[in-house]
Each structure stands twice: as structure tokens, then as C-alpha cells.
Amino acid sequence: MPCSAGRTRRFTLAPPIPPRRPVARSSGWKPKKELNMRRGTWILAMSGAMALNAGGAFAAEPDTDPAFAQVGVPTRYSRSATPPKPPTTSSTKNFYDELFGDDPLAAELPAAETPSKGTPPQTPVTTTRPASAPPTKRIPLDDPSKTPAPESDRVMHAAHSQAPGQPNQSFIQPVRATGTESASKATPRAASPRAGDQTHSTPSVIVDWVKQSDINVGQECQIDLVARNTGNAPASQVTLEATFPSSVRLTSAEPKPTASGDKLTWTFDSLPVGGEKRIAIKLIPSRRGDLGTSAEVRFSSQSGTVFKVEEPLLKIAVKGPREVLLGDPASQLITVSNPGTGTANNVKLEAVLSEGLEHPRGNRLTIEIGSISPGDSQTVRIGLSAVKGGEQSMQIAATSSSEASSVAVEKIQVIAPSLKVAVDGPGLRYKGRSATYVTSVTNDGTVANNNVRVTQHLPEGFQFVSADRGGKYDAAQRTIHWFLGRMEGGQTSQVSCELVANSLGDFGHQVVVVSDAGVRSEAKTDTTVKGVASLGTEIVDLDDPVEVGAETAWEVRVRNDGSKAATNIALICELPDEVELLSARGPTQAVAENRQVIYKALPQLAPGQQAIFRVHVKGAVEGTHRLRAKVTSDALEEPLLMEEATKFYADTKK
Questions:
Q1: The pLDDT value given to residue 403
Q2: CB within 8 A of 336, min separation 6: which ones?
Q3: Biased composition, Low complexity: where in the chain (predicted)?
């Protein structure tokens, strides 16, 4: 039947058929054949129903009024706009309310008219669910902000108790802690008012546990207990009670509880609509695992939740070569992992290197890594160079602000070519004597040395004579150089040279051996050069023969022909009786005593020098007269004795 644009007509039965239980429609739904229906009406109704069903009208009609869906198939049309009577709720089971907790019929029926003054008010009916009943599902699945907790989280249900004097209505809310965000929860909704019911303003207080920081063993953490009034009336005399396990130590609470014992209690005079009371609780857990806390609000709700006590751990693994050649890279890969259950924060890596390992930043390195989540790891590469042979070590320590730490010590064997040198020479030489020095070079390692070179330094007290095996002498540097070339492991080579000692004293002969691998070895030997004081003496008469009565002199000459200074040289001259002493001269003073001229000792007479002692006399008697002299010194084991004869003659006239 055509209808005017913009108008919707409803068709009702005349007379109405008693209502039936609503039946879910499907794509294959067909109305049952009704009695007392005219054939034309039946054909028309069937055609319209099939057309609507083929276009999906029934499946896509969420706003269809359930009250009218219960009307049977019409047998006669009328233009009356009077709707049919709603079905009796006592005889119809509401599956919608059983599944989702809301009755769409009640939401769409008009509200009851205000009773007249003469009509007494009726007592509203409030449904009460026992505390042991399962919680009503009130979390819409299409709301991401209210998605239920995953199965891996422990969820505690908060049981609510009503304050005295308030309507006995309770809701059970799921509470879950999610870090610093509040736990997901459902807002309780009052039952939809039906015809004849009155709307009640009731407070609804829920409590949440909110984790504000990481919860680690032995560290202070903060958990907030939050009470909110989500109802539509203020709550008065709100009392919060919190219970904690024995594995935690409470350090502070803000505000402070009004009572403490087995439970901590906070009391607030009022909590307005939409108001919130937040209690910051600080505690220190002592055991790894689940930390169960519970809270109860006396009036509307009780909340309990389980927090995971996390324990971050650190583990160090080092990967790199354990044997390297001297001078080669010895880089190491250090992996710091967290096998624990908590996040390790402010992770720091410290490495201490032995003297044989070198890094551009020194032998003590500090690397900031940051945070490492459970199961994660961070890898750091440390570039090292082997600069000294032998066993080297690297001490590694990983620390964090979460008190997790790990220490490891890695050994690295640096294989280095080795050379051993020894020099052999005389320990004593007298001045002017030659000495031969032999140098032995041995490769005492397992790796060959290339371009082995030997250098011997000559001291100032020696003079170069010759060298074997092509040794070259550098007079400017006073060094002798030999080139030995490649030396295999265990090989030994010798070189030698001949020197002459030309100075007295102690002299060191140093030999240095180097190779291209950076190997250096040194050896040294000392030689003492001594000298001999060799005194030579002679007596010379200045006049021979000489006239009697004429002045003449004997001269005693002491010469040091040795290589060492002569010390404490003393001279005693014994005069013959036939001469007369006139004077005595020399490097020291002399005294005459009993026909002897005694000179004081000369402290030192250097090699090559001589001392002259002169005694002046006058002959008194003709004849040959002898002067005897005795020389003593520290360089002489026995005194030197000598004499000189001089002829004195008389001048006679013929």
C-alpha cells in the first residue's frame, strides 16, 4: 500500500493476538501460517516478509522495538495507531538481560507518571545479588580502555559492602594494576528504571591499586591506593582498610593512617561525587614472586590485587680470541644480559686491562649501557691491541642501580717472539792490554724473529780493534753493529769483537738485540782496568871528574814508567865522608842528619812523570867517592838501592 513521503505507518491486528515469546530471526525465517487469515492477506504478508528478509532487513535492524516484534502475523489491516499491549514480564524470560545485564524493554517504555498527592508513594524494589554470586559482566568488548586483564595477570575481585542506612545494593568490580595507569575497571550502572520504579541516588566507591615504580627485591617502591566515588551521591564516613603480606616492610604512607595493627586504616569524612582519595604507600619487598595486597572500603568496595615482585639479574659473556700474536688486535665482544624478571636500570660496564693490553682510552674503561629489560641483552665491542707477551687479563664488572651486578675475568695469552742475549768478556784488564768480548743471541720462543740486529756499545776506556761476522764500527757513536737476519725458534748465534783497554777504571759493555717483531733484549758485562806503577831511578853526577874544593852535585832522578801513579815516594841520600854538603833541592823539603839527606815523601807521581832530587857537595879529599841513595814507595814491595861514584882530583903544579 503506498505511503506518503516522510511518514511511517504502523499496522496493528484487529483483534490483537496474545503475545508470544520472541524468536530470533535468521536468514531462513518464515512466518507460521496463522488461522483465520484470508488467502489474499496471507499471500501479501508472505511476499512482503520474503522481500524484507532477502534484503537483510531483519538482520540489520538493531533499533526494532522488541515489544512490537512479539506481535503475530496480521490477518486484517487497520489504520489504527494504537500499539498493542506489552507482554507480561512474568511470563516472558528476558535472555538479553541475562547475558548483558540490561533490559531494552525497560529502556524504551515511557516512565511512570508522577502519582497524585492522594496516592501514597510506593517502595522501590532494589535487586540484591549475594556476595558469593558471580560478578556481572559490564565491560563492553568494543571499548579499548576497558579491556579485561589478560590471563597472565593475577586479577583480584573487589567485594563491596554497603554502609548502614543505605540501599542494599552491591557491585563486584574487577581491578587490575597496569604500571602507573589505573587498573581497568567497569563502572557500575543502576538497574534501568521500569514503569512504577523510582530513581535512587546512591554513592558507589571503588578502590584501585596503582603501581608507581618498579617493584624489585630490597628496593623501596611506591604503590598508590586510590578510592573514587563513581556514584551519583556523596559518600560519607568512608573507611579504607589495607592488608599487606609479611614479605614486605612498610616505610611510609601519605596521608598517615588513622589506625594500624593487622590492617592499616584511613578514615575520610566525605567523598563527593567524582571525588578521589589517593594514598601513597611506600614499601620494600624482601622476596621474589607474587606480592598480594588487599584493600577494603567500608561502604562501597573492597579491592585486592597481586603485584609481581621482579628481580633483575645481570650476566656477562665475553667472546673473543684467547690467543693472539704480539702486536695483533685482541678485540673482545662483551654481552650483558638480564636473565631475571625485572628491568635492570642504569647498567654500567667497567673493564680493567692488564699492562699487556692497550686501548686508546687507557687501561680502565667505563661504558654506560642504560636499561636492560628481562630476557634482553646488550653487546659492547672493546677494541684492544696486544702490546706485551705472556698471559694478560681483562676484569669486567657490570653494575646497575637495581643492585644487580656481575663480574667476570678473562685471560688472553699473547704469543710473542722472544730473544735472549748474553755477553761474555774479561772482568779485569791492565791498561794497554787487549780483551775479547763474545755476544750470544738465542731465540728462546716458538715464533721466528726476522731481521735480528745486535749493537754493542764501547765504553770510553776501550779502543776498537776488530769484529767478526761483518761487524761494523761507528766511531762517532762508539758502537759495533751486526745483522743476524732471521732466527728460528731455539736458534743461537754468536758474534765477537777485540778491544784494547786504554784507561784505568771500571767500564760497562752493553749489548742490545732487537727484531722486527718489536722484541728487545739487553745484556751487560763490566771490566775493570788497572795499572802498575813502575818506578825507575838513576843517579847522575853533574861533574866527573871534579877538582877537590870545587862545587858539584849528584842528581837523583825517580821516573814512573808504569800505568798507575806511584804514591808516597821517599828518598834518602847517604854522603861519603870525603865530601862536604852544601845544599839539597827537590820536589819536597830535605833535612841533613848524620851524613844523610832525608827528603819528605812525595805524595804521588803520575805515570810518565819524574821527580829530580839534587844534592850539592864540595870534595875535600882527592879520590873516588860514592853517593848511595834509597827510594821507597807504596808501589814498591822493596826499597830501590843505588849509588854513583865520582872522582875528585887535586890541582897540583909541576
A1: 84
A2: 314, 315, 316, 347, 349, 369, 372, 377, 378, 379, 380, 398, 406
A3: 102-113
Rg of the chain's alpha carbons, rounded to an integer? 62
132-141, 188-197, 369-378, 413-422: which has the highest mean pLDDT?
369-378
Whether the predicted pLDDT of 496 surpasses 60? yes
The CA distances from residue 642 to 287, 560, 597, 636, 639, in Å, are 112, 17, 15, 15, 10
Provide the mean pLDDT of the chain: 75
Output the nine-digit C-alpha cell for 128. 540484591
Alpha helices in 55-176 (DSSP H): 66-69, 95-100, 104-108
Measured CA distances, 4 to 7, 9, 45, 57 (Å): 6, 9, 20, 21
- Sorting pLDDT into bands at 50, 70 and 90, what band is 465? very high
Cβ atoms within 10 Å of 251's Cβ, excluding its own: 12
Residue 118: the pLDDT is 41
Question: Could you give the CA distance from residue 305 to residue 241 in angstroms, rounded to a whole number?
Answer: 14
pLDDT digits (tens, 9 = 90+) for 187-201: 334 334 444 445 667
Residue closest to 319 by CA, chosen among 341, 307, 301, 337: 337
Cell numbers linked to 619: 870534595
Q: Looking at domain 420-530, what is its CATH homologous superfamily?
A: Immunoglobulins (2.60.40.10)
Q: For the chain, what are the domain ranges?
A: 39-108, 153-188+201-309, 318-413, 420-530, 535-649
Which of 420, 470, 164 is closest to 300 using CA atoms?
A: 164
